């Protein structure tokens, strides 16, 4: 039986145990899956024990970068993202499956970004992984980030997108919200952007010209950002599938199993349908 866990500042409400237990069961593997919340000031002193307590573990906010000095190998996308969400204790190898989860979410929603104009709102950890994977796929990516310093830093490191100082209501095939605005204490709000008129919340003017709106938020299922887009007849996608698919890719790493987009989609439909 695999001993697994999710590690974060406060993972008391994490959906990871249910998702990973379901997925690994479908893959024929048994597991125990714990939720381990660690105060940020204690992470450095407790990180080492994770490798002996668990066969593998997932890492979430705010420790995705903090775990990296403890690892012997940084693999795949984790190098470009500067963040790890999946760790194999035996090899002390770290991976990041967020980008692959995001791209599979788009693929299984019928959104192909290759050659398309994509506007990304937010260049934090989630935004960075999406920007990288979209550009890698061949999308024409423009990015707006309220922090000019962060935007400049990400542009220096990735260099594969057009940084925007302000957002004009132009036609985009996909507008992607990576800011987190619309969840927790910001429910009912949309991200704000600088326009020629000053700072304004994203609304009908921008979303009326997009082909599809994608929000990495999955709770609530329909953010205000997506509600506005849906009211305009636009295709909308929330981040629920991305969460599931990044877990799927993690479990494939744990089991040294080759991922399959069709299998992942089937498992997701079964999970959402309550099929065991």
Give a brief rundown of this model.
This protein has 276 residues and is α/β, with parallel strands linked by helices.
Protein topology:
Blueprint: E1 2-8, H1 16-26, E2 31-37, H2 43-53, E3 56-59, E4 73-74, H3 77-81, E5 86-88, E6 93-95, H4 98-108, E7 117-121, H5 125-137, E8 140-144, H6 148-158, E9 162-164, E10 172-177, E11 192-195, E12 198-201, H7 204-207, E13 210-215, H8 224-231, E14 235-237, H9 240-255, H10 261-272
Structure description:
- This protein is of the alpha/beta class.
- The chain contains ten helices and 14 strands.
- Strands 2-1-3-5-6-4 form a six-stranded mixed beta sheet, sandwiched between helices.
- Strand 13, helix 8 and strand 14 form a beta-alpha-beta unit.
- Helix 1 crosses helix 9, helix 4 crosses helix 5 and helix 4 packs across helix 9.
- It is globular and about 55 Å long.
- The model has no long low-confidence stretch (mean pLDDT 95).
């Amino acid at each position: 039986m695999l001993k697994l866990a999710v590690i974060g500042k406060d993972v008391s409400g994490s959906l990871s145990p249910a998702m990973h237990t379901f997925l690994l069961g479908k893959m024929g593997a048994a597991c125990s899956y714990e939720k381990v919340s660690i105060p940020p000031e204690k992470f450095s002193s407790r990180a080492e024990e994770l490798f002996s307590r668990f066969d593998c573990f997932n890492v979430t906010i705010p420790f995705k970068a903090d775990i990296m000095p403890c690892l012997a190998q940084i693999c795949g996308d984790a190098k470009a993202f500067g963040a790890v969400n999946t760790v194999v204790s035996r090899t002390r190898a770290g991976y990041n499956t967020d980008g692959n989860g995001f791209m599979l979410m788009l693929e299984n929603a019928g959104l192909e970004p290759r050659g398309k104009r994509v506007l990304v709102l937010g260049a934090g950890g989630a935004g960075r992984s999406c920007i990288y994977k979209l550009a890698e796929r061949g999308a024409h990516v423009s990015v707006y980030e309220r922090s000019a310093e962060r935007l400049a830093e990400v542009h220096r490191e990735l260099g594969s997108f057009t940084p925007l100082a302000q957002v004009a209501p132009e036609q985009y095939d996909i507008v992607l919200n990576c800011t987190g605005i619309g969840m927790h204490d910001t429910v009912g709000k949309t991200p704000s952007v600088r326009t020629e008129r000053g700072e304004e919340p994203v609304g009908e003017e921008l979303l009326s010209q997009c082909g599809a709106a994608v929000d990495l938020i999955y709770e609530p299922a329909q953010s205000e950002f997506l509600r506005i887009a849906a009211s305009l007849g636009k295709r909308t996608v929330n981040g629920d599938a991305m969460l599931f698919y990044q877990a799927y890719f993690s479990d494939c790493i744990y089991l040294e199993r080759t991922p399959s987009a069709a299998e992942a989609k089937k498992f997701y439909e079964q999970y959402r349908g309550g099929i065991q």
